[in-house]
Amino acid sequence: MPTLTVAAVADVGPQTVAIELDAPASFDAAPGQFVLVRRPGGDDAGYYTISSPAVAETFEITVGYPVDESPEESLGTWLARREVGDEIEIEGPLGTIEYRGEGDVAVYAAGPGIGPAVGVAERAIESGHDATVVYRGDAPPHRARLDALAEAGATVAVVDSLDDLADFDADHPSVPTPAVYVFGFDDFVAEAKALLEAADRDPAEAAIESFGPA
Ligand SMILES: Cc1cc2nc3c(=O)[nH]c(=O)nc-3n(C[C@H](O)[C@H](O)[C@H](O)COP(=O)(O)OP(=O)(O)OC[C@H]3O[C@@H](n4cnc5c(N)ncnc54)[C@H](O)[C@@H]3O)c2cc1C
């Protein structure tokens, strides 16, 4: 498993950090794809999704970590405590969900899923396409990047529940289902699938990346 060096760590919201890693020369990946992260010498491993719009000399992952820390430091907490110059083992890129600037996108996210959501939306705007980002929750991480996206012309909505999208352009008539992305834990994925079904969209056509059970 290659060992990558931490290039930057930043608090980006409640219980969430963004970690920039030096990319190996051969590393070609896009937001939506993920990497397997392991502590050097450790047994536990977890998947983290690329949250930068592209991969150049570095790429970024966005890590949610728990409020109540058990005596056993979780992988998320260990990652949040990394510093510039530390080393992290990764494997990847993995996964078939990715976005490389193909067209307009509508991205739904909750929790640390906001990482790949902003990465995908930034790639869309940079490529001259429209982007809509819907975050479920009251304090989205990556607030500065969401604000910059809104200033650049993206539609950004922060809602308590996807049910609150009744007055919003929830079914994105200009965006075909294949350009709908969903990033979050299982409970949110279920909510997003219900929203798509209510809008007569086929969830099977959306790019849905579940982060697993809460
Ligand atoms: C394909 C895939 C991609 C993933 N990508 C990411 C990613 O980009 N970023 C990421 O943080 N995790 C991601 N995960 C989840 C991550 O792999 C696991 O949560 C992690 O392995 C668990 O590690 P931990 O020991 O730190 O867990 P924990 O200590 O349990 O920490 C998990 C943290 O996730 C957050 N969380 C858990 N459940 C919810 C929920 N329902 N809503 C909101 N937040 C919640 C909280 O911040 C929690 O503290 C992904 C999982 C998969 C399968």
From TrEMBL:
Domain of life: Archaea
Annotated signal sequence range: none
PROSITE patterns linked to this entry: FAD_FR
GO molecular function, one term: oxidoreductase activity
Residue stretches making up the FAD-binding FR-type domain: 1-100
Alphabetical list of InterPro entries matching this protein: FAD-bd_FR_type, FNR_nucleotide-bd, MRET, Riboflavin_synthase-like_b-brl
PANTHER family according to UniProt: NADH OXIDOREDUCTASE HCR, PROTEIN RFBI
Protein name as annotated: Oxidoreductase
Gene source species: Halarchaeum nitratireducens
Lineage: Archaea, Methanobacteriati, Methanobacteriota, Stenosarchaea group, Halobacteria
